[in-house]
């Protein structure tokens, strides 16, 4: 059944106080669907339904609820209930939750947390946003090198329910230095008497707590990992990152790139939940910056005002030249920005990119100019001179646009600016100015007034 | 060590015929790194190094090689060697490889394949591109409902080496109907005498062979899956999809969206490996279409030619108005396209989107116009009338641009067109025309000639 239909049913049942139906349906549905339904109910009904969940399921559903509804819950329920709920969460979900709660709620929850855990929580809350530390969890299986496979399996069996994953286990020494990894697959297949040190893979792919999460996700993609250890400066294991969180990182990073490329300050809030004021704020900076830059393009026209007054027909082709130049440049910058994000293009490829964009732009520019010349002369019956001026400008503009579009993201990367900024809006503004200068220059060569 | 340094070392060793060093280094490196190095060597050296790999590692490295180098290998090595190599591949890697090989190579390989497998391969090769069937594999663990946990674990232990994943097992009946799933975690924790049917989760999240791979990846994200069963019309299990392939799908779908949004026909080939002609082809269609559309914008200017001739100063503000309108519209379409791709926005949200864009555009439009008016009057010392005309146009354009930008992707989605097409290039062209009409209309109201 469609989830929207389900929401309707839930609303109806809750109104009729048919709690049995709600309870039954929630036990039948996957926790993610239950969370989605609760996210869409009003806070009061949502909490009503949430309280009907069995204790062990509640924490899981809670970890999938939206920030908005969780903040609402934390304001509606008693301190004790909130505390016991938070206790049942996986450690990384707990951190996520505390990060978005108002300071007084966090303080309340931490007050009665044992000293050792409180210290750990504070440590995790302090990892920089977008760092490996900020997405890791501590619920992993650690093994000792001198265990046998049989001992390891017993240990896993005993601790599994509290672990986020048991499929990759981490071998550490007394000081928690990371020695190796061993997969549950290897453990299951191996002879029970084999020692872990003989079975483990010593060549571990690990990250440091302060590594960027984008780097983390690129390693997951490259090495097809299900989880990855995070170590501190002394190579001591402090946590692991699991693939489900990496999937979220991957989407968030893609969203960030796409927003930057659209000339918007990136945000992780969803479209629907953002207020118009936040939205306006995220968009204004670039619009203003680009508006002011575009006035320089206007200056070029002003400079050629007399010329234009005598040849006002030239004005009619300005939009087409500007748009085509902008589009041609954006195509190139889009390709290069994406190539850089995927690691297919490196900064050392700069000459290769310029050479390629040049060749592409010659092919594209000539094709467009040819088509345009024919159209102007045959269909629009514009004079040959003007058709020639416009078409020549088109070729030059497309070539310049594509080289600039290919080059700027690479230059940005070299000076450690996010290449995504060098996308459509900025390229368009730059190329517009260039197109107009070329246009008036070529026109001046061919047309004497 | 950096992978580029490694490549240099490999080249040197191969030239010096120091095969021992190559062999030793390859056994130390992760297979993905070995593949990356081989991808960057010339085909002859690459094959030389490849042949130094142990037989069991060779297939794994092979599955990570680029298409280019694999085609080169298949032309350089003997039929027998190629065949034995292909035999060692996981089934989905085999299909991937056959898909990109020239027909004669495929024929050669299939000739000596046993009838049953050949039929299976042909079936897989026929699944539509971008379908669930095209990314699934057949190397999964299937269990019977009446097995005990102990029997299941023995079965898994015995078959594990040939399976892509053993962490989720699929329970089927005699006719291969999918009855449930059970995770290795549950098996390891459970009492050995428990029967699988009592342990398995009957509420299975599965897809059909012809479902879109984008839908598949959205399910993985939502339900935090590691693998997912694929069934035919009769609910018979035909394969599974694993998360490593889904990560690739996710990136490919994001790339596709980004390319569409940049006005490029999407391609899965990397920037570096595309020829300038392919690139030009992928870009020409949109450039031509948009160039022709932009001529309509030119027509608007032509229509107001006389007016413009008398008030040529108006021309100087055209680029700024066009650019700002285009940027404002692209921002909105970018946000809505991404929201739709992530499932945060549904088509039924259309009124909500329009209302939100209207509010945002009023805030943004007024801020920009205010700033612009001040700048024109105070800094540029333009007459109040013209400053007013330009600023008013700015407000109206921004409002229209944002509503059109927010609306078009939703309309596209409703009529089952990819919303990503309604991005920057198209929006810019549409908004440009609108901006000019508004500009001349408002100018006509305020300025009498």
From TrEMBL, chains A, B:
Which ranges does the record mark as transmembrane? 284-301, 358-379, 385-411, 423-447
Membrane-topology descriptor: Multi-pass membrane protein
Q: Name one GO molecular function term.
A: magnesium ion transmembrane transporter activity
Task: Tell me which UniProt keywords the record has, alphabetically.
Answer: CBS domain, Cell membrane, Magnesium, Membrane, Metal-binding, Transmembrane, Transmembrane helix, Transport
Give the top-rank taxon of the lineage listed in the UniProt record for this protein: Bacteria
Listed SUPFAM superfamilies: CBS-domain pair, MgtE membrane domain-like, MgtE N-terminal domain-like
Q: Residues in domain CBS? A: 136-199, 200-256
GO cellular component terms, alphabetically, are: plasma membrane
Q: Where in the cell is it found?
A: Cell membrane; Membrane
Q: Which Pfam families match?
A: CBS, MgtE, MgtE_N
What does this gene product do?
Acts as a magnesium transporter.
Quaternary structure and partners: Homodimer.
Homology family: Belongs to the SLC41A transporter family.
What is the name of this protein? Magnesium transporter MgtE
């Amino acid at each position: 059944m469609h989830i929207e239909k389900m929401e309707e049913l839930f609303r109806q049942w809750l109104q009729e106080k048919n709690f049995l139906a709600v309870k039954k349906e929630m036990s039948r549905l996957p926790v993610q669907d239950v969370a989605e339904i609760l996210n869409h109910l009003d806070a009061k009904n949502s909490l009503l339904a949430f309280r009907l969940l069995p204790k062990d399921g509640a924490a899981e559903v809670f970890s999938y609820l939206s920030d908005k509804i969780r903040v609402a819950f934390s304001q509606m329920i008693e301190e004790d209930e909130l505390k016991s709920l938070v206790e049942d969460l996986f450690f990384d979900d707990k951190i996520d939750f505390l990060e978005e709660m108002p300071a007084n709620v966090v303080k309340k929850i931490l007050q009665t947390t044992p000293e050792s855990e409180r210290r750990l929580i504070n440590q995790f809350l302090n990892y920089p946003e977008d760092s490996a530390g900020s997405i890791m969890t501590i619920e992993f299986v650690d093994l000792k090198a001198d265990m046998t496979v049989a001992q390891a399996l017993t240990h896993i069996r005993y601790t599994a329910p509290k672990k986020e994953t048991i499929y990759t286990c981490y071998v550490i020494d007394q000081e928690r230095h990371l020695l190796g990894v061993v997969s549950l697959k290897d453990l299951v297949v191996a002879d029970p008497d084999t020692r872990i040190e003989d079975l483990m893979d010593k060549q571990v792919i690990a990250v440091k707590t302060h590594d960027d999460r984008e780097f983390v996700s690129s390693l997951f993609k490259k090495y097809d990992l299900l989880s990855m250890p995070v170590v501190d400066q002394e190579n001591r294991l402090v946590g692991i990152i699991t693939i489900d969180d990496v999937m979220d990182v991957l989407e968030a990073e893609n969203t960030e790139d796409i927003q930057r490329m659209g000339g918007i300050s990136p945000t992780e809030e969803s479209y629907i939940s953002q207020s118009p004021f936040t939205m306006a704020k995220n968009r204004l900076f670039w619009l203003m910056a680009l508006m002011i830059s575009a006035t320089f393009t206007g200056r070029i026209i002003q400079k050629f005002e007399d010329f234009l007054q005598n040849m006002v027909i030239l004005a009619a082709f300005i939009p087409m030249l500007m748009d085509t130049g902008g589009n041609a440049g954006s195509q190139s910058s889009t390709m290069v920005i994406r190539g850089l994000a995927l690691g297919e293009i490196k900064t050392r490829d700069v000459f290769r990119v310029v050479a390629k964009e040049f060749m592409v732009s010659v092919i594209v520019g000539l094709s467009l100019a040819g088509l345009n010349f024919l159209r102007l002369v045959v269909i629009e019956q514009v004079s040959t001179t003007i058709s020639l001026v416009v078409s020549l400008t088109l070729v030059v503009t497309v070539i310049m646009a594509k080289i600039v579009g290919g080059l700027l993201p690479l230059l940005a990367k070299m000076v450690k600016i996010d290449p995504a900024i060098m996308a459509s809006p900025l390229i368009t503004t730059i190329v517009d100015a260039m197109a107009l200068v070329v246009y008036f220059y070529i026109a001046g060569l061919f047309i004497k007034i």
